[in-house]
Amino acid sequence: MKKRTLNRIKLPVALMLGATVVLSSCNQKDEQKIAEQSDEIERIEQALAERDSTYNKLIAMLNQAESQVAEIAERENLAINATSEGNKSEDQLVTELKLIDELVKESNLSIQRLKAEVKESNIEISAFKTRIDQLSAALDEQRKTITSLKAELADKNQELQVFAVKYDSIKIETVSQKQLITEKEQEIDLLTDYNNNLNKVHYAVGSYRDLKEQGLVDKEGGFLWIGRTIDLKASAQAENFIETDIREFSELKIEADRFELVTEHPAESYTVIQDELDPEVKYIKVLDAKKFWELSNYLVVTTKG
């Protein structure tokens, strides 16, 4: 009896122990699988984080490159306008073009780094490649524009040099002409003064007593005061005469009944005209100025009555 009872007790215990072993083995496998899945999830999350970081980095690099290319375009437009309007000096334009050159080089490096980063990241996004290609194309166009601006500036510089040479030549010629004109003006002044002196004449009109008191005339010759003539005094001072110009002297008004020419003047070179209204007024009218003054540059007339 006791043996049966023990056998009955041993059997359930054995079954319970077996079930425990099986359950324990299953729990270990599940835990391992869960651990592996957790590791995989962590790797995926890390990969996604790295991908996001790379993507954000590429976006930042792309924005920087686009900003550089946009700045180049803006500066090129300013340089083109300045060249066409001429509101900047050559030195300012050269400095501006050098700055744009440096920006082009920096932009080119940025685009090359961006291409390398995209290639290394293995991110296959067509939008990136399209935008990068557009940036490269825009940069190539800007290089061409810069080259064109430099050529235009060089042409203008050459034109300015030619103009400067012409300007210097004209300036030298102008200085020579001014000097020549000054010399000619001096010659003209000398000739004018000389001509004025040649055409300068003097005259005096008055009674013998008045003219004698002025030291202009005196009586000479004759015998015992008979037959003496009135002559121009050799010591007569020019300031006591009235000065005039042959070209302006055409007649001399005489207010006297009678008058006499003390100085010698050819009779055919002048005539005497009676005033129509006043019988006491007469005019000595010069007919031939050259002949009238050829013997003397002085005209002295004595009046009587």
Please estimate the helix content: 55-70%
CATH architecture of the largest domain: Up-down Bundle
Could you give the count of β-strands? 9
Rg measurement, Å: 63 Å
> What is the CATH class name of the largest domain?
Mainly Alpha
The fraction of residues in strands falls at 15-25%
Strand order of the largest sheet: 4-1-9-6
Uncertain parts: none
Give helix and strand order, one letter per element, not per position.
HHHEHEEEEEEEHE
The CATH topology of the largest domain is given as: Methane Monooxygenase Hydroxylase, Chain G, domain 1
Average pLDDT, to the nearest integer? 77
Main beta-sheet strand count, sense and barrel state: 4 strands, mixed
Structural class: alpha+beta
State the separation between the terminal residues, measured CA to CA: 212 Å
Number of contiguous helices: 5
The dominant shape is rod-shaped
Protein name: Chromosome partition protein Smc
Keywords: Coiled coil, Signal
Signal peptide: 1-24
Coiled coil: 27-75, 104-159
Keyword list:
305 residues; alpha+beta; Methane Monooxygenase Hydroxylase, Chain G, domain 1; 2 domains; four-stranded mixed sheet; three-stranded antiparallel sheet; 65% helix; signal; Chromosome partition protein Smc; coiled coil
Summary of the model, kept short:
This protein has five helices and nine strands; from the N terminus they run αααβαβββββββαβ. By secondary structure, it is an alpha+beta fold.
